[in-house]
Inverse folding.
């Protein structure tokens, strides 16, 4: 079963059944009517599963503002043009609204089909790039979705996210770069999407190496100093990471860095040598 199939299957069953849809519209956490039992447990399971998956963004209001998505649009949301980060922010908005005003996820987001459209859109985005995650998601899930195979990984700047730098990082035991140096280097890069290219050739493969990297960024480890300029990006939890499984990851990393330097005249922001 694919990443979102279970959620989409349930939401489609509601959308196709007028009785279930009406039950969702009538739902209230203050009602103990037995008739709601048929939807209560699947929805509780959906909520738990998605919180555990780590999709939700801490700073989702900021992301929504970047993409011009307003609160009043949320119940009739058009998902067609939403990029990955904006889609996660919209999902977070719906789940967090339920946290502050319990029952709305069921009686509005599910009943009106908005949640179904968001999950279907997210599934399509994953089909195009099945390895993408936010750094925040990887931190929350301890990189559990990554394979224990060798490979390379790239840290990417999402569309519309402004890249600016801070002095130092959350890892107080790590020495940072002067923010002015990072600004200058990033300004020299023609390709401003790829921020870092790294390799994972250790025993635990991508999962172990990226976990070391993420823990370093959140200040709980010191064993991944390579690429540390990423943690001086102001909004680093919103950055994306994608990976590629490959046996000869040293050669693949070298090829990617050489190609980047040839096109840009310098290495990506957080790489300093090929």
């Amino acid at each position: 079963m694919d990443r979102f199939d279970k959620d989409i299957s349930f939401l489609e069953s509601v959308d196709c059944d007028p009785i279930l849809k009406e039950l969702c519209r009538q739902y209230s956490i203050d009602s103990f009517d037995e008739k709601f039992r048929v939807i209560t447990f699947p929805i509780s399971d959906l909520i738990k599963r998605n919180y555990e998956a780590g999709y939700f963004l801490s700073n989702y209001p900021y992301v929504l503002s970047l993409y011009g998505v307003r609160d009043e649009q949320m119940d009739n949301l058009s998902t067609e043009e939403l990029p990955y980060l904006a889609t996660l922010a919209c999902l977070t908005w719906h789940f967090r609204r339920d946290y502050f005003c319990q029952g709305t996820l069921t009686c509005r987001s599910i009943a009106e089909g908005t949640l179904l459209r968001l999950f279907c859109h997210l599934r399509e985005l994953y089909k195009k790039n099945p390895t993408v995650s936010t750094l925040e998601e990887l931190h929350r899930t301890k990189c559990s979705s990554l394979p224990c195979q060798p490979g390379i990984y790239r840290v990417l700047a999402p569309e519309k996210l402004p890249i600016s730098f801070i002095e130092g990082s959350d890892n107080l035991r790590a020495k940072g770069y002067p923010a002015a140096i990072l600004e200058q280097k990033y300004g020299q890069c023609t390709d401003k999407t790829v921020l870092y290219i790294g390799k994972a050739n250790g025993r635990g493969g991508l999962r172990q190496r990226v976990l070391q990297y993420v823990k370093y960024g959140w200040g709980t480890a010191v064993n991944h100093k390579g690429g540390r300029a990423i943690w001086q990006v102001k909004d680093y939890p919103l950055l994306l990471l994608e990976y590629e499984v490959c046996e000869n990851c040293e050669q693949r990393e070298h090829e990617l860095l050489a190609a980047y330097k040839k096109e840009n005249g310098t290495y990506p922001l957080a790489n300093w040598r090929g």
Notes: The longest helix spans residues 37-53.
